[in-house]
Design a protein that fits this description.
It comes from Anhinga rufa. By secondary structure, the protein is mostly helical. It has a domain of 73 residues: Recoverin, domain 1. It is built from 8 helices and 2 strands; from the N terminus they run ααβααβαααα. α2 crosses α5 and α3 crosses α4. The protein is globular. The model has no long low-confidence stretch (mean pLDDT 80).
Length: 133
């Protein structure tokens, strides 16, 4: 319906943290397929990657544009500028680099840690000590 309720959020969080690769990739596909037409185009992927990077700390050396280009260059088999679920699933599973970057971009471990620590970064004392050295 275009909105996420609390149970959908919890289910998605659980899936991203504990799901099998196949399950995660299907969920990622649904996330990237913004208009729900069953395909991901460059604009959809680029916008979601930018949004994820804005929310989730991400130390990628590749820009969102470069990553989007890489995804389409590697897995858009028929060259139509869209990724079907099948292209996405097969392409990402066959390419360790893509799989690693996608998994890392949606790693929510630090968010769960913040929630568990009442919004405080559990690594702040370590980071402060490192900065002092």
């Amino acid at each position: 319906d275009g909105y996420i309720d609390f149970m959908e959020y919890v289910a998605a969080l659980s899936l991203v943290l504990k799901g099998k690769v196949d399950q995660k990739l299907r969920w990622y596909f649904k996330l990237y397929d913004v208009d729900g037409n069953g395909c991901i185009d460059r604009g959809e992927l680029l916008n979601i990657i930018k949004a994820i990077r804005a929310i989730n700390r991400c130390n990628e050396t590749m820009t969102a544009e470069e990553f989007t280009d890489m995804v389409f260059d590697k897995i858009d088999i028929n060259g139509d500028g869209e990724l079907s679920l099948e292209e996405f699933m097969e392409g990402v599973q066959k390419d360790e680099v893509l799989l690693e970057i996608l998994t890392r971009s949606l790693d929510l471990t630090h968010i769960v840690q913040l929630i568990q620590n009442d919004g405080k970064n559990p690594h702040e004392p370590e980071q402060a000590a490192e900065a002092a050295q």
